[in-house]
Amino acid sequence: xxxxxxxxxxxxxxxxxxxxxxxxxxxxxxxxxxxxxxxxxxxxxxxxxxxxxxxxxxxxxxxxxxxxxxxxxxxx
Length: 76
Description:
Layout: E1 2-4, E2 7-16, E3 19-28, E4 30-37, E5 46-52, E6 55-61, E7 68-74
Antiparallel strand pairs: 1-2, 2-3, 3-4, 5-6, 6-7
């Protein structure tokens, strides 16, 4: 999701040493990369990004019913 060239986020699953990792890069002037182990099946992975009240939220789900917050950030 891109607001402009200085404000954007990319997120998804990355494989590293055989492990599935949730990964996000948040850029607000400069970039910050975060990862966490994804314990569910990465072949059936869902992620959604929503914006409301000036806040970007990233959530992840293994079943499309239960959504877990992975990141929330205020937008400029």
